[in-house]
Specification:
The strands form three sheets. Strands 3, 6, 7, 11, 12 and 13 form a six-stranded mixed sheet that branches. Strands 4, 5, 8, 9, 10 and 14 form a six-stranded antiparallel sheet that branches. The protein has three helices and 14 strands. By secondary structure, the chain is of the alpha+beta class. A hairpin with a 5-residue loop joins strand 11 and strand 12.
Length: 220
Amino acid sequence: MIRPLLTAVAATFSITACAGPMMTTPAATPEGLVVLSLTADAPAGARISSLEYRIRPVEAMGEGEQQARTERRTGSVTEQFRRAAADNARRAADNLRSRVEVLGGKAPDNAAIHVADKTTGRVLVLHLPPGEYELRDWTLSMADKAGNARLSAPAGSAYRFTVTGGEQRYVGNVHLSLKTDSRFSQNVLDARERDLGMAGALDETVKTETVVYSPAEQVR
């Protein structure tokens, strides 16, 4: 079971009427449960040796990053380089607890997805505070006949999903398909039959019959 400590949970309060001054008491905020899978494939003759993503609450992004995303397609070449440098600096400052290793030496075997005797990704079961989250900043290492390459997501590219307290959601299989010449495509697939079966085996709190399908949406 994966419980990433992505951010501090803001306390919510319920108001209690009383004879004296108004008082507030903390009210528990139930977590939501999210199931998703992350997979990747490479061209014939190539091998992916590592793949990781970051999962962050949307509110963790500063105003500068939001503005950079909005303005990314505008401005001079110099401005675009400046924005790219700022994006890289923000990535370096990300909280490491949000990192999810999909493929590589530290990825858990019990959550691995296998296709034709190859490990192509993993299933995640996340218990998170309510709110909006983004799956972003993937980095990948690949070896082929031309040598070793390290690829990363375009700046600002992400998949967003919502967590609702007390609800269980399946947000899809985010699949990354590598092409030749370092090109790639990425989309969200519906692999509920496979992923929910694995999720139920990983985490006994998953109630597969009540999980709501709510696919993650791409944002740029």
